[in-house]
Amino acid sequence: QPQIDIETGVVTSVEALIRWQSASYGLQYPDTFISVAESSGLIVPIGEWVLYEACKQARQWELQALPIGSVSVNLSSIQFARGNLGQLVAKILKETGLSPKMLVLELTESILMHEEDMVMHAIDELRALGVRLSIDDFGTGYASMTYLKRFEVDHLKIDKSFVMAMTKSEEDQSIVRCVVDLAASLNIASIAEGAEDEETLSMLMEMGCDQAQGYFFSKPVPPSEIEAYFI
Ligand code: C2E
Ligand code: CA
Ligand code: CA
């Protein structure tokens, strides 16, 4: 799914969102299978596949000189529990040839809040590789300010539940404004998920939000359709 720079309206980056074309059940969306993949442990090979495919695709776009600034990949807490995430990302970057700065890893607050040594260590390793970090669904978990400081994150993604409600609810609007201001004052880029209409977009622009992602621009699409934005 493309992510747009709100000020210029230009697509600057993409998020990799998995789909499963199942022979028995048809096209499946992540909400139907990610939690099962997490409880069965299958999320480990699935997550590795997603990382590899996303990096390979982004490298191909880089070689085609398509100006896609970065590709974001969602990570599950289970991938951290394995203890070799830093090595895995390093290996995939090497194999695909993608520049580390073009990879953004999206972490949820629940991954960060436990402050477990293994997670801390993995994040330090990822930072050392030069990949960028983003906090996903910001505001729906524990919204701890400590990890914003501790991990020097690059992006905050404002959860779509707030963004989708902001034109109708003053509370949601205040929450979005507050996260945009917090990000700006910490020098972190803000990205609003779930921008579905023009009114939401103009509110985000007025608030100074950096990027937006949502059905107003595009639903998640196959890679070939992303290329059309740049031709
Ligand atoms: P997420 O990371 O918060 O991703 C954003 C979700 O919001 C996506 O749902 C996207 O299709 C949807 N979305 C984007 N714009 C709009 C909009 O304007 N309106 C509405 N109603 N929805 C919008 P999707 O693709 O179904 O993914 C759901 C969740 O599954 C993701 O939420 C993420 O947590 C997880 N996920 C997706 N791909 C992966 C993956 O490769 N690995 C892992 N671990 N999780 C993944
Ligand atoms: Ca995400
Ligand atoms: Ca979300």
Classify the secondary structure makeup into a structural class: alpha/beta
Q: Please list the strands of the largest sheet in the order they lie side by side.
A: 1-2-5-6-7-8-9-10
Instruction: Report the biggest beta sheet as strand number plus sense, adding barrel if it closes.
Output: 8 strands, mixed, barrel
What portion of the residues fall into strands of 2 or more residues?
Answer: 15-25%
State mean pLDDT (0 to 100 scale).
94
Radius of gyration: 17 Å
Q: Could you state the order of secondary-structure elements as H and E?
A: EEEEHHEHHEHHEHEHHEHEH
Task: Estimate the global geometry from the Cα principal axes.
Answer: globular
The low-confidence runs, each spanning 5 or more residues with pLDDT under 50, are none
Ligands (ions, cofactors included): ligand C2E, calcium ion
* Alpha plus pi helix count: 11
Cα(first) to Cα(last) distance is: 17 Å
How many DSSP-defined strands?
10
Helix content: 40-55%
Account of the protein in words:
The protein has helices spanning 30-40, 43-63, 77-81, 85-96, 109-113, 117-129, 145-150, 160-165, 170-185, 198-207, 223-227; strands at residues 2-5, 11-16, 20-22, 26-28, 70-74, 103-108, 132-138, 155-158, 189-193, 211-213. It is α/β, with parallel strands linked by helices. The protein has an eight-stranded mixed barrel with strand order 1-2-5-6-7-8-9-10. Strands 3-4 form a two-stranded antiparallel ribbon. The longest helix is centred in the N-terminal third of the chain and has 21 residues, at 43-63. The mean pLDDT is 94. It binds ligand C2E and calcium ion (2 copies).
